Amino acid sequence: MKAILTLAMAATIGMCQYSHAASTRHLSVKTDSATPASLRLGKACHRTGPASGSSDQEEWTLVGTGSYTDDILTNSGVESATWDVDIYESASTPGFYRVANPFGNGNCPTFPDPFECCDFLLHAENPDAVWMEFVEMKNVDFGIMDGEYCPAFIGDMAGYYIDAGYFDAETAMAMGMAGGSMAGGCITFGKEELIMDFPYYPDGLTFAANLSGLFRVALPGAKDLTFRLEYDDICTDGTLSFGYSAGADIEEIRYAVYPGLHSFMTSDDALFDNVCSDGTIASGGLVSIEPEYGVNTVAAVALAEGRIVGKDLFYCYGQQENASEWTDIGQAEYSEDVLASIYPEDLSHVVYKVDVQQNNVNPGRYRLVNTYGPYYPFYDMLADEDNILTGHSHNHYLVIDASDPDRVFIEAAPLGMHFGYGQSSIFSEGWLSMQLGADLDNPDVIEGFGTLADNKITFLGGAIFVYMPEFGMPRGNIYHKFYIMLPDNSSVSSVGADSSANAEYYTLDGVRLGSLSPRVPGAYIRRCGDRTEKILIR
Question: What is the pLDDT of residue 48?
Answer without folding.
Answer: 44
